[in-house]
Amino acid sequence: MTLVETTPTQSTLPQASASEDDRSRKFVLTLSCIERAGIVQAVTTFLFERGFNIEEHQQFDDGLRQTLHLRTAFSGSPEYSPEALEEEFRAIAERFDMKFSFHDQTKQRVLVMVSKFGHCLNDLIFRWRGGSLGGDLVLVVSNHGTHRAMAEAAGLPFVHIPVTPDTKADAERRLLELVDEYNIDLVVLARYMQVLSDELSRALEGRAINIHHSFLPGFKGARPYHQAYDRGVKLVGATAHYVTADLDEGPIIEQEVIRVDHSYGPTALSTVGQDAEALALSRAVRWHCEHRVLLNQTSTVVFR
To answer: How many helices (H) does the chain have, and how many strands (E)?
Structure first.
């Protein structure tokens, strides 16, 4: 994209006529491509010609990587479906070599994995029941039975899949069966304390989110808050990122930080850290479910 193209604002975007009030279905378009002139015009003209009203538009021009990332929310005729829009948009996408997708208001179906720490699961359930999570929790999977009561009290099926070195491959196969059986869109590792195999990580690429204490890659391994105490940390943080075969090194979606001081022992640091983990994870899940996160090579673009 060049400087001669006008950056879109609410006042410059083409709008459907106010008399066209059949706007009962909402959609989101996300796309990424190499920067070129005419991309925004092509998108807005495509929507305008079909009577859609643009309700939100965000874009990011990555000058270092020479790429453009765009998210446009719009509404219009319920006769359209994401599949129909994708088919009609394909010629434009091919012209600009875009990676793109259309979505409607169908909520993402979320599977949560948990081990013995339940604070992130509890927070996700609270936000889901309050309608602020952005997706629908449909299943809880754990390698322990610790949080069965929490899940079932929320009306969620709970599946216990024990994991040992001898059963790990079978356990991961069972997980993928559940992903297919429940039509899962997103897998959330809410302090699931098992390392996923490279094969499983690749199978879930782009649709699995993990939460990690601290700012990566600090304090790996056991007893992270004891490590933090020993080093006299002044900030406690958490990182939510996509799962990849490279352990805890996937594209980062969100980070949360809380200031502490010398008076915080390991227990206090753990409590503060759990708050940071729950906040970072819930935001990452919501933004993913609302199609606000676009992969940008090894990083992400997040349209909040």
So the answer is: 8, 13
Over residues 11-32, the pLDDT tens digits come to 344 444 444 444 479 999 999 9
Residue 48 to residue 91: CA distance in whole angstroms? 16
Q: Is 170 a catalytic site residue?
A: no
Environment class of residue 176 by beta-carbon count within 10 Å: exposed (0-12), middle (13-18) or buried (19+)? middle
* Joined tokens for residue 282: 């819930």
Do 192 and 175 touch, CB atoms closer than 8 A? no
| 114, burial (CB in 10 Å: exposed 0-12, middle 13-18, buried 19+) | buried
pTM: 0.88
Can you list the pairs that 256-265 forms with residues at least 24 positions away whose Cβ atoms lie under 8 Å? 256/280, 256/283, 257/215, 259/234, 259/235, 260/233, 260/234, 260/235, 260/236, 261/234, 262/232, 264/229, 264/236, 265/229
Question: 61, 136, 248, 275: which one is catalytic?
Answer: 248
Tell me: the pLDDT tens digits for 94-142?
999 999 999 999 999 999 999 999 999 999 999 999 999 999 999 999 9
Distance CA 304, CA 298 (A): 19
